[in-house]
Each structure stands twice: as structure tokens, then as C-alpha cells.
Design a protein that fits this description.
- This protein has 15 helices and nine strands.
- With about 375 residues, the chain is an alpha/beta fold.
- It has a single domain, classed as TIM Barrel (Alpha-Beta Barrel).
- A seven-stranded parallel sheet has the order 1-4-5-6-7-8-9. A two-stranded antiparallel ribbon has the order 2-3.
- It is globular, with a radius of gyration of 19 Å.
- The two termini are about 30 Å apart.
Length: about 375
């Protein structure tokens, strides 16, 4: 697709005027937008019915199924955006890296990356490698009444799975490579950044209205290490995606001390804030002109409605009507969550959330 084609595609995206996209851009809109990370699946009976007949990989690799699962929470909850149903390791799986998504565990790598030669297993990602993902995006862009968020795993988080062989609490092997073989580390991160960028670019070219870069485990890093070993590669991805004309959300868990770095330089339009950091504190750490997404504690949705209701109102109060706040959980929906509670959260945010027109970044003329 040429640059002219990309400009044209970006100018005609059907949901550019939606509250979600406008909030991402810091533009006035009529209600606080809300969506939930991991809203597709897990807590929904209709998703579990599909999983009784199909494995996770079968759903991801079948565009009609992946599109249906993406649509389910939009129908059920009335959220303001959909998140593509896929996985952060899908692109490297498509390149032949053996990764199994084990229920209750997560991605498990058949042959973990242990030597410099393992880098040769990561060639550039081509559109045909993930045609099933791109076809899912095309279906969703036609059928969704709200914006579609494309997503991908950031290089550090994907690298941690490849090196550790699966989920980790200490990331000891990952950090050993990072500290002990810095040139090899950066080569790995560069290759993963290229793969991630190709994945996100394909999703945007097919019509995704925004993207979210998940650096789920970056919170395991010291801020100085994050800036030295990780941020340049994530920023490269976000800078390049920014040229495609869609909003970019940067998210991690336990990243309270990294929020300023994650938002610096204008590479991200919105930074996700987990439940450990009050929004007021996050606002002080995030540069002016960058929005915030979050940050209801996911486990709070397991309690009685009265408690959930108060916590939702607390988040809305802390957001203080900011035009660039998107309501979300501080991480993903927990499997035991009652969908009826999430429905009530959406209704409450839409009913009581206020948006003040504070015209800042990207502000439009008063008559625009």
C-alpha cells in the first residue's frame, strides 16, 4: 500500500468520530468511553461454548471464529471499542517458533531461545504469514459498530517468553542476556520490533482504528534498564505506527515507575495505567498531551455491586472529566467475573462519567 493509499484509508476510517478515538486524540466527545482488556472471552458463556468445540489456536486461526469472539463483548456490554482476539505470540508462531498456549499457564515455548544462533529463527514477518489475522480484521471492520483496536506484544514481553520458555516471576534468563550480552539483546529486540511493526501495520492497513502495544511484563525492570534496553525498540514501533494516522496506546503491568518514560517523546497517544497507581499520581508522571487509560482493579469486579459501584465512581472522580481519559480495568478481565457486573460498569460509566472540553492537544476550532 502506497503512502497516498494509507493517507486515503486513514481519512475515511468509519469510527474516527467515535468517543473512543476522539478521547485517544484528546478531542471533545460526548461521554467517557469504556472497554475492557481481555473482554473477548474468558468470562463469557458464549465464548466458552465456542471453546468447547475449538482450541484457542483454532479460534485465532479461523477468521470467522475470531471475529465472532471479538464481537461478543460488544453485543453483551455495549463497550465503546473492540479489541482484536488474538495472542501476543501469534506472529512468532506464524514464523515457525513452536509455542503452545496452555490453559491456565500461558505461552510455553518448545525450544527456548538460548544462543545467538536462535535469532536466525526470527525472519521478517510477511502479510501472508498472518493472513488469518488480517482477514479477521477485515471482517470486523465491516461488522463492528465501534472502533477496532489492533494489538501486538512489545519486544520485551515477547522476548521474555522466548527466552524463559514460558511465564516467569523473576525473568532471570531474560535479564542475564540483557545485562551480559547487550549486542545480542538489541539484535533480538530489533528483530522482534520489526515483526511487531509488520503485524500492527497490516492490521491498520486492513482498517483497525487504533492499536495497543502490550508490554505486559516491563514492570519487572528498573527504570534505567527500561530506558536503555527496551524503550528504544518500543518507541521505534510506536513512531512508525504513528505515521499511519491511528492512535497508539502503550500498556504494561506494574509500570508505575515507568509511566513517564513510556509516554515521553510523543510516541504514545495514551498510556495504560494499572490499578496500583492512582490516576492523579499517574497524571503527574505522564507528560501533558498524553492521555490515560484505566484503572479499575480487575478483582474488585468479583465483589458485591455496591463496592464495584463505588470504585467505578472513584476512578471517574480521579479522572476529573479529562477529555483524554478512557475507562478500563487496570489489567484484563478475570475469568470468574460475572458479565452482568461488567454490563453495569459500562452503564454506570456512560451514565455518570463526565467529559470536560479542555481543548489541548489536537484541539479543534470551537465551531469545528
Amino acid at each position: 500500500m502506497s503512502a497516498t493509499d494509507l493517507d486515503t484509508a486513514a481519512s475515511v476510517r468509519p469510527h474516527d468520530d467515535s468517543p473512543f478515538v476522539r478521547a485517544c486524540r484528546g478531542l471533545p466527545h460526548d461521554h467517557v468511553p469504556v472497554w475492557f482488556m481481555r473482554q473477548a472471552g474468558r468470562a463469557l458463556a458464549e465464548y466458552r461454548a465456542i471453546r468447547e468445540r475449538h482450541t484457542f489456536e483454532e479460534v485465532v486461526h479461523t477468521p470467522e471464529l475470531a471475529a465472532e469472539v471479538t464481537l461478543q463483548p460488544v453485543r453483551r456490554y455495549g463497550v465503546d471499542a473492540a479489541i482484536l482476539f488474538s495472542d501476543i505470540v501469534t506472529p512468532v508462531q506464524a514464523l515457525g517458533v513452536g509455542v503452545e498456549i496452555k490453559p491456565g499457564v500461558g505461552p510455553v515455548v518448545e525450544r527456548p531461545f538460548r544462543t545467538t544462533g536462535d535469532l536466525d529463527r526470527l525472519r521478517p514477518l510477511e502479510p501472508d504469514d498472518v493472513d488469518f489475522v488480517l482477514d479477521t480484521v477485515s471482517i470486523l471492520v465491516r461488522e463492528l459498530p465501534v472502533p477496532l483496536i489492533g494489538f501486538a506484544g512489545a519486544p520485551f514481553t515477547v522476548a521474555s517468553y522466548l527466552i524463559e520458555g514460558g511465564p516467569s516471576k523473576s525473568y532471570s534468563r531474560t535479564k542475564a542476556l540483557m545485562y551480559g550480552e547487550e549486542p545480542t539483546w538489541h539484535r533480538l529486540m530489533e528483530r522482534l520490533a520489526g515483526i511487531t511493526l509488520a503485524s500492527l501495520t497490516g492490521q491498520v492497513e486492513r482498517g483497525a482504528s487504533a492499536v495497543q502495544l502490550f508490554d505486559s511484563w516491563a514492570g519487572a525492570l528498573h527504570p534505567d534498564d527500561y530506558v536503555r534496553y527496551v524503550l528504544p525498540h518500543s518507541r521505534h514501533i510506536l513512531d512508525e505506527v504513528g505515521a499511519l494516522g491511528v492512535p497508539r496506546i502503550h500498556f504494561g503491568v506494574g509500570t508505575g515507575e515507568l509511566l513517564g518514560a513510556m509516554a515521553a517523546g510523543g510516541a504514545a497517544d495514551v498510556v495504560g495505567v494499572d490499578w496500583r497507581v492512582p490516576l492523579a499520581a499517574a497524571r503527574r508522571r505522564i507528560p501533558t498531551g498524553v492521555g490515560m487509560q484505566g484503572n479499575l482493579e480487575p478483582a474488585s469486579c468479583l465483589g458485591p455491586w455496591e463496592g464495584v459501584e463505588q470504585r467505578v465512581r472513584d476512578v471517574l472522580t480521579a479522572a476529573d472529566g479529562a477529555v483524554d481519559h478512557i475507562f478500563n480495568l487496570g489489567h484484563g478481565v478475570l475469568p470468574a467475573t460475572d458479565p452482568a457486573v461488567l454490563q453495569r460498569v459500562v452503564d454506570l460509566v456512560h451514565r455518570e462519567g463526565r467529559v470536560e472540553d479542555r481543548r489541548g492537544r489536537g484541539a479543534e476550532p470551537a465551531d469545528g
